[in-house]
């Protein structure tokens, strides 16, 4: 009989199982060859669906049964029983290719548990017919060099990479089959979605043309301005290093305003387009979703929208047009030339077990990775994040750039020398030093600070909590020209507020802003005065970057005031960062922004925090256990400790229209709409959320799901200033 791999019930079109296995094997081999594991890629592909040879599964494909049963375990068992360590890793990948990589487990696991060991003992329907079409597996001739000597961390990392090759190959071949079942017009359109990206060489040419006109045009009236002279020097050196440099690890310590975004992209494109570089794509990693679209827009304007794929949790893709659909598909496996993503998306994928999260991993190999604001890697996960980066550099052909004005002391964790891309650092920081710091020793009352702010025509105040931001805002004696920013405002609302803030700053109108730290990184605003509540030195300097940003005011008139507030409660980690910052104030009072001061701050912070605090979930210990529990590691590796419920705020016409669509559509279309609706959501901590729920102020979007709630009492959303409040009849509970 002819064994089926796929069967389309509508068109009656078939794909032979042997054909599917061969196609997946070929793709997986090609993907894995990039990091020297072609043979294992072939084996994983050829054996991944052996379970489909059972009569039970074949009956299911023909529509004679409602279920085909477990078809992922069969091929894994075949490889596992060959007693080869390398085949065991391939078996592990196969076992997870539908449900995700399981924990390895142990010999005493219950027969019904979902661990790998348990499944290797599982009784399956007879699938022995595979022997008539496939040869017995043979282990590779040699262990890949990067797995020698035996290192458990490298093995678990490699298992995910091999798993990624298999999963992507399986998805792509399955996708191709079902595309072939569509009418010709739809099939042709679908095939185009997996193509259409320009080469990195073409992107380099576009970049060079753009910066030539912007920075190197001597006829431009701003060509000789000192700030452009410095930006041009930094850019030129980065481009030169891209053409000639060979290092795997760089740092780019560029002061705020020095043009690090374009300079880092230019270095990456020149390095990638160079003959023999081996760079397959550029991955730009950004800490905050609040600035990811801003940076991506800069790249898209230069390189073309279709070549820049933006991937983060709430990214919206327009499925109404081909370009939007291509972007969405590219987020699945990162096969675009330039990926812009977040710390959470990037690092979580490297420790993931789920198919959707791991599918893209093989495309990270031989990438040039730029970590923007590198100091923002969460302290509690610093060591596992950097160990993953070290592995990518050493075993998977990657190049990394740590890009920030406040360079953390990461060299001891990475074990590699870093080459600096910024020329003449001392002079650059001296030139871009545009502010004077005023560190106040005494604590001040919130009311007194509010009174002081009210007397300033333009000022930015950054505090450590939403509670204090609200308290200060409400204490300011006048409301005209006073603004509040926090995550209690949905993203669309914050964008509107920032637009008005920028307009007022340009026009010289009164503009006093009280914000949480969300305004610090990458938000392009320019205030004459900035007040920053005591925090880590990197946060203070990020806030300082919003003061005299364009360098048009005298330094002595551009004051950054560091203050302490009465009644302000700081969590232990933030308190520790503040204490270390205070120790730096005494030694580097006149040059807080100097790289030497920043490095001293981070060294002391890491030392004071201790080893355990830099890997608070003991991820590396879990990764180095004999046969690591991969699903458990995935569960423990949560960069954002967030128990918030997402509440959609229908506060304008577009949000109302999206809500109306969401209430009538579910399934694939609703996922697209949910991504678009992400800019209208606010995360609410469980205690406050429960009060809203008890009062009937929120309701589930769909009765069948609690993934998203809708604010039904719009009186609780203060569009004028404060955003979402939980002032409900059960108590005056405020969302902090």
Notable traits:
single chain; 736 residues; alpha/beta; Hypothetical protein af1432; Rossmann fold; 4 domains; 7-stranded parallel beta sheet; 6-stranded parallel beta sheet; globular; disordered C terminus
Summarize this structure briefly.
With 736 residues, the protein is of the alpha/beta class.
Regions with little confidence, pLDDT below 50 for 5+ residues: 730-736
Query: Would you state the CATH class of the largest domain?
Result: Alpha Beta
Report Rg.
28 Å
Overall number of domains? 4
CATH superfamily of the largest domain: P-loop containing nucleotide triphosphate hydrolases
Approximate shape = globular
**Major beta sheet, strand line-up:** 5-6-4-7-8-3-9
Strand % is: 5-15%
Structure description:
With 736 residues, the chain is α/β, with parallel strands linked by helices. The protein folds into four domains: 4-181, Hypothetical protein af1432; 200-427, P-loop containing nucleotide triphosphate hydrolases (Rossmann fold), CATH 3.40.50; 434-592, Rossmann fold; 645-732, no CATH class. 45% of the residues lie in helices and 14% in strands. The strands form six sheets. Strands 5-6-4-7-8-3-9 form a seven-stranded parallel sheet, with helices on both faces. A six-stranded parallel sheet has the order 10-15-14-11-13-12, sandwiched between helices. 46% of the residues are buried.
